[in-house]
Design brief:
Blueprint: H1 2-24, H2 30-33, H3 37-44, H4 48-69, H5 72-75, H6 78-97, H7 103-132, H8 137-186, H9 199-202, H10 207-218, H11 221-242, H12 244-251, H13 255-283, H14 285-289, H15 294-305, H16 310-338, H17 343-370, H18 375-393
Helix pairs in contact: 1-7, 1-8, 4-7, 4-17, 6-7, 6-8, 7-8, 7-16, 7-17, 8-13, 8-16, 11-16, 11-17, 11-18, 13-16, 15-16, 15-18
Length: about 400
């Protein structure tokens, strides 16, 4: 831990920039958008499943768009890419504030929020951190990832309060103004140190070359080792948390007590975000990649079978362990295996599948709930999916 504090002391400006981007990515994350859902449903007089379908469509579209622009971090300046992304996020929030005029504005705002928020801001942060640091890559990624936890802790309190006081439209406009203030502050930060100049970035970028790059990644054996683990985690965690209160009510547990237990998840994730980076630098990302999914897979067992709400607490702690380490380990593993020359292009492809899984997971689990599949069988299905990914991840050692 001393090395971690020493690293932060010398590089707090760099990792602070990365952490700021992950913090602001909260505006496009499911946990924050979900706070708007009750008011949106009332405004448009639609049912939850209709909004869920619109949200899934918007997420899929944003993941495809991310594939077409995520590579820009490899050949454009970080400042320019970040500026355009923040402008896109602000516009999306403004559209959300005016969405009550027409449903199409709601869909456009959701696409923009998912693309610029969850997609590009986190993509830029983790790409530049993995690219700038080599020896201390794990520490840099873990500290910058704390922005996710900070956003989860602070934004729901403010956003939910603003929605109660002024409604979701005004809240969205306030959020957009906040993003624009952050954009102004960006002009005073020297970001040239994050730019990466290489032969790939100097080469003329064409659609043909981009498709060739993506094709080579998809046909590479490494992709078939890395993708299932990344996909299965996002698929599982998003599915469970999307329907968590449905599951809790079905088990007859106290919703208020479960909500209190969620603090354990946040604290565990925060702690493991830090330790994960230290372990990556100590043991290598490839070794950590083989084991980081095990805790959440184990945690699904008591969640599925225990009648006591302690089973939920165990799951939340185990899920916090995995999700806390996940971002750092995945980004560092990509840098270790592929290098940093085209890291933005590579990460955009993996991020696309990750974002896609966050749409597919709730959709499929929602169908299972609709088909009256038992809670236990749903959890066991997710555990088997994770188990397959864990076994497949062992191939990375070769």
């Amino acid at each position: 831990m001393k090395e971690l504090f020493r690293f932060f002391k010398h590089h707090y400006k760099q990792v602070g920039f990365g952490g700021s981007l992950t913090f602001l990515s909260s505006f496009g994350q499911t946990f924050l958008i979900s706070l708007y859902v009750p008011e949106i449903i009332k405004t448009f007089n639609i049912k939850e499943n209709v909004f869920g379908s619109l949200y899934a469509i918007a997420t899929v579209i944003s993941s495809i768009l991310l594939l077409t622009i995520g590579h820009s971090i490899d050949h454009k300046s970080v400042k320019k890419t970040t500026t355009i992304t923040l402008i896109g996020l602000a516009i999306s929030l403004f559209l959300l504030g005016f969405s009550h005029y027409h449903l199409s504005l709601l869909v456009l705002s959701l696409i923009g929020l998912r693309l610029s928020g969850q997609g590009m801001l986190s993509h830029i942060s983790q790409t530049v951190m993995a690219r700038l640091f080599v020896k201390d890559r794990g520490k840099a990624l873990s500290i910058s990832s704390l922005g996710f936890s900070l956003g989860e802790a602070l934004f729901p309190i403010f956003i939910s309060s603003f929605i109660i006081w002024w409604g979701y439209e005004t809240t969205a406009h306030i959020s957009a103004a906040f993003i624009l203030l952050c954009l102004l502050a960006l002009n005073f930060i020297p970001l040239e140190q994050f730019d990466y100049v290489n032969n790939a970035s100097k080469a003329k970028l064409t659609t043909k070359n981009l498709i060739k790059d993506y094709r080579s990644i998809l046909l590479d054996k490494k992709f078939l080792i890395l993708m299932p683990a990344s996909f299965s985690l996002s698929f599982t965690s998003t599915s469970v948390f999307f329907y968590q209160y449905v599951f809790v009510e079905g088990k007859g547990w106290s919703i208020s007590l479960y909500a209190a237990f969620f603090t354990a998840y946040a604290m565990t994730r925060f702690l493991m975000s830090i330790l994960g980076g230290v372990w990556v630098d100590k043991y290598s990302a490839k070794k950590m990649f083989r084991v980081y999914l095990i805790p959440i897979a184990i945690g699904l067992v008591p969640f599925a079978f225990m009648d006591s709400i302690i089973g939920a607490l165990i799951f939340l702690i185990m899920a916090g362990i995995t999700t806390g380490m996940a971002g750092t380990i995945k980004s560092a593993t990509l840098a270790e295996l592929y290098g940093v020359e085209k890291l933005g292009t590579i990460r955009s492809l993996f991020t696309m599948f990750m974002v896609l899984s966050t749409a597919l997971g709730p959709f499929l689990v929602g169908l299972m709930i609709y088909w009256n599949v038992s809670f236990t069988n749903i959890m066991l299905s997710l555990m088997l999916f994770l188990t397959f990914a864990i076994i497949n991840a062992q191939r990375i050692k070769n």
